């Protein structure tokens, strides 16, 4: 019985020692893992801080860049507006020149037509004067009845007067 107690006690010590060993081993293992995780967290924290620092520096650099480029962009926009205004003015000047050219061509055509009409009226006037001369000669030289000749002469003179009036009126219109 005493040997059983000793054996039981021995087993108790062995089991207790084994449990202590396992507990100590697990404690060491957990401490190692905890330290490893703390180191990882510290690295992550450092990396996060570094990333935040880099992002902050980038924001500062972007702000400085925007500040430096702001006046340049305004100048470029002003130059672009000026160029657009100048282009519009040039287009308007071209359009005005084209309109003037078209009006000049129209006036030239009207002048040519007026000259042609004047020439036609002058020809008709010359023909009427010639007929009047022929009628006067016919009345005087051929012995045609005086009344008939006078009537024809009056008609011719009326035609000549009308043609002259039309000719003078047309020349005033073309001027």
Brief summary:
The chain is an all-alpha fold and 175 residues long.
Structure report:
By secondary structure, this protein is mostly helical. The protein has helices at residues 2-141, 146-174. Helix 1 packs antiparallel against helix 2. The termini are far apart. Residues 34-166 form a coiled coil. Keywords: Coiled coil, Membrane, Transmembrane, Transmembrane helix. The chain crosses the membrane at residues 6-30.
Strand/helix succession? HH
Low-confidence stretches: 171-175
Which strand-content bin applies to the residues?
Answer: under 5%
* Tally of separate helices: 2
Distance between the termini: 157 Å
| Mean of all residue-level pLDDT scores | 80
Computed structural class: mainly alpha
Shape: rod-shaped
- Rg from C-alpha positions? 62 Å
Percent helix: over 70%
Based on DSSP secondary structure assignment, what is the total number of beta strands?
0
The profile of the biggest β sheet is: none
């Amino acid at each position: 019985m005493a040997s059983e107690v000793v054996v039981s006690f021995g087993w108790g010590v062995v089991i207790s020692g084994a449990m202590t060993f396992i507990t100590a081993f697990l404690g060491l293992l957990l401490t190692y893992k905890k330290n490893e995780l703390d180191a990882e967290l510290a690295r992550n924290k450092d990396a996060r801080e570094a990333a935040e620092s880099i992002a902050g520096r980038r924001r500062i650099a972007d702000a400085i860049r925007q500040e430096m480029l702001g006046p340049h962009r305004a100048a470029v926009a002003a130059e672009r507006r000026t160029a657009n205004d100048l282009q519009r003015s040039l287009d308007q000047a071209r359009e005005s020149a084209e309109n003037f050219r078209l009006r000049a061509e129209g006036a030239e055509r009207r002048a040519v037509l007026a000259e042609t009409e004047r020439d036609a009226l002058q020809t008709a006037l010359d023909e009427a004067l010639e007929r009047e001369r022929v009628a006067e000669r016919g009345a005087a030289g051929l012995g045609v009845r005086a009344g008939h000749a006078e009537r024809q002469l009056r008609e011719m003179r009326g035609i000549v007067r009308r043609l002259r009036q039309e000719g003078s009126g047309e020349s005033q219109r073309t001027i």
